[in-house]
Amino acid sequence: MNQHKRIEILKRLQAAIPEPTTELQYASVFELLIAVILSAQATDKGVNKATAKLFPIANTPQAIYDLGVDGLKEYIKTIGLYNSKAENIIKTCRMLLDKHNGEVPEDRAALEALPGVGRKTANVVLNTAFGHPTIAVDTHIFRVCNRTKFAEGKNVLEVEKKLNKVVPDEFKIDVHHLLILHGRYTCIARKPRCGSCVISDLCEFPDKNID
Ligand code: SF4
After folding, report:
1. Which stretches in the chain have pLDDT values below 70?
2. Domain 3-20+135-202's class?
3. Does domain 29-130 have CATH number 1.10.340.30?
4. Could you tell me which residues are annotated as the binding site for [4Fe-4S] cluster?
5. Known binding site: residues?
6. Ligand 1 pocket residue status of 194, Cβ below 6 Å
7. Cα 210 to middle of ligand 1, angstroms
8. pLDDT single digits (tens) 8-40
9. pLDDT at residue number 49
10. pTM value?
11. CA angle 81-84-86, nearest 5°?
């Protein structure tokens, strides 16, 4: 795909999605971190339902740590992989208290050192909470980028590197949420909604679903 098309795609997505941000509910950087850890292989809706009960009771590293693994599980047991997520979150809270004064660090290496926090989670927190131009690639973005040929790659890291290369600086803050929301609601996995897609004339997917 040429750069002219890419920029046009970004402009159209920006016009179609005026508030490109996360659908996870959060009121602090710490709440966002916990919500993103919980969202791995789970829907934002499911996470929001659980955190709506958890956060009014505990929304600081100390308060969640004090719940303990079993206490935390009670709030998140509707979410996939909740056993390991509960363990990781308690360890993360301990580490935030011991090493970061109870604050979420604005630093990739420090974030990735937290249990349950991988590259994608660190990218989301740096981008969404701290306004860094980092581009997290999840399953939706991976699919959209390869399908459209906007930024092709064999794995999420390759797509992330390609996006960093081809996305102009002025779009870097928003591109993650623009592509994720486009993938979640229009360029969906099974039957992409090409008939109502605002970039269908620019997309290079050969098997468009136009009924
Ligand atoms: S035209 Fe279809 S395949 Fe291409 S981006 Fe739109 S929904 Fe996805």
Report:
1. 211
2. mainly alpha
3. yes
4. 187, 194, 197, 203
5. 187, 194, 197, 203
6. yes
7. 9
8. 999 999 999 988 888 999 999 999 999 999 998
9. 96
10. 0.89
11. 100
